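[Primary structure, fold]
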Amino acid sequence: QVQLVESGGGLVQAGGSLRLSCAASGRTFSTYAMGWFRQAPGKEREFVAAIIWSARMTYYVDSVKGRFTISRDNAKNTVYLQMNSLKPEDTAVYYCATRGDPTYFNSNYYYSPTYDVWGQGTQVTVSS
């Protein structure tokens, strides 16, 4: 089993930047891809970005393209989400998640049940 721990959230003004980290431990060799989701109060969990661990292929929701960058450090078993030009509508709890099986991932990367293991979340608040 893989365990995930997010960090890096906080309070930032609009236009500012934050970098979220998600450290994986345990059976990390079984990881095929990792993703970031977010959930704002009263809203459903929303896909943000994903990366295929070995191929470095990345996916983004349209609302963050050009502002957010997902990356990974194999040596540290860590995935990052660099968030620039933050907006108040980016305020949410951000979760990282991992997927072990590559089957159908490319067509379902945006769908939360695709992912097997989830972290506890980290709060990001963007003030206007």
